[in-house]
Amino acid sequence: MNFEEAKKEAEKTNTEILNQGKTPLLIVAGPGTGKSTKLAERAAFLLNHRGVPPDKIYLLSFTNASANDLKEKLEKETDRASEIFLSTVHGLANKILRDNSNDNYYISDFLDDMIIAKDAYPTKFHQELEDFLKMRNKNAANLKKEGDEQYDKMKNFYKSFNFYEITAKVVNLFETEPQILKRYQNKIEYLIVDEYQDLNIADQKFIQLLSSSENTGLTICGDDDQSIYGFRHASPDGMVKNFYSGKFINKKMCCCWRSPTSIIEVSRPIIKMTEEKLDIRRIPKLLFGKDTPDKVEIISIPSATKKQNKEATWVAKKIKDLLSEAKEKSEKYRILVLASQREITDGLKLILKDAKIPLKSWRRRILKLKNPKLLYYALRFIREPKDNFAVRAIINLLQGNIVLSEIVNLAIDKRKSLWDVIKEESPPQIRNSIQTLKILETIDRNTEPVKIIDKIGDILDIAKIDKGYKKIEESAKSSENINYLLTNISNEYLDVESFEVESPIENEQFVEIMTMHSSKGLTADCVFIMGAENEFIPGTKLTPDNIRLFYVALTRSKGKLFITFVRSRQTQLARGQNIRSRSIFVNKILENVNQRYWKYEKLS
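Above: the chain's sequence. Below: its structure in token form.
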């Protein structure tokens, strides 16, 4: 099949997807095949042509970014997009749990859980607590019910649960109280789920229960080859099993509208390594793209040192040339620079900034940073002084990793709030924090959100020019009250991505630098993959995740693709391994792909 034949096949498949009824539908969609657009079209088709009430259509995705992408596409298809329920899987699970919980609870992240674990086990070392929590999260993601009395007691006292626990709790709720499950099944006539390959076992069980009624039409869409969240316990095997189960009508989207043939051919032997090297069962699929004169360029560079990073210099020069050419033609041009670790691209960032190249930067999410976290917990404390974890987190952020398990256990035994017991006992080791909390307590929760933020900033001595402060201040300006503001901020906890775009960019020709993980779902005119050395990618061990990760990185480009590596790296990143070896992924390309699709250059 060639690209023109694939286009005709795609038209037929698209029509079948739109007209599919309530029989379970599984869409296998490789990179660049337009799956998000197709799911938005299906939702709009059900609304506009099948007369399905919009509130009976639920459209779900995995990350906030992919959900926002679906929202934009849906708005292009129907002017009633806002009436369709659109959320992340974890967002819906959170909504259901809140609607059916007698007590309020808060969403926690890993750092929050570390504080809770330290209160449960004050004598354990940091690494022990990390390992304990990772196993807890893995068990929750895999629906293994292994409780820990001391830790569970702390969790319930703090009323703090992470998104693994929230989804597992909803699954348990549905299984133990079928009347609640029935209520939600009656609400949903069509359930459409994107990025299914990224869901863990608990997420998939949640979807399966929601759609188990004959009245609910389930559509799941994804690509097992693009499942890169194994470290978050994603289970792409769930999609593979569904494909072979005989319970779904399977449709494959094979026409790649993004990447040209050269990139598709280069990426093909890479993804096959999951089968050949690791014996992982995949859903068989072929991609077809346009033929273009561009070849994938693989560049071997002599060295990267602290004083002279030749890899960064070469990439920077190529970027300048490409952007200059695009500017002369008045063309929009987006360049992605990817690496397995952010530090690999540090030298390039400095060169581009010095050259005044428009650079779209990425930063850690707001609630991963200290000052915004302080603001967030101060807001929670002002709203409700009996919010035990807000009190505990503020003390931790102000005074570091201080042991408070004795006071916490006393509060549990007395059945009082942590703040009440702290005021009664006045522990001398947190005297300064107590004074700060007492001042915060005087702020009226009904004050305008912007004014509350201003007062908190003054009390906690947070600079008003702090980027995190400014972002929360902006959110406060559009929030009616403290509850709205806290909801907007806390939504971040339900997203799996740790980084976000720092600020929009107005230039039509620009560069984005990020990790390969962060590039999921993105498209660019040109992509650079730096540090293609065995020591970085695949690293110490070949895994399904790092094979898929390289495959995802390769398939972001709709035009040019450059892969660079150095033969000698004398920086801290090398960790003593100064002589570098090119990645086995590069070797796979050179040994298995027709040379008309790639060009290899060894620089001296």
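Residues 84 and 159 are 31 Å apart (CA to CA).
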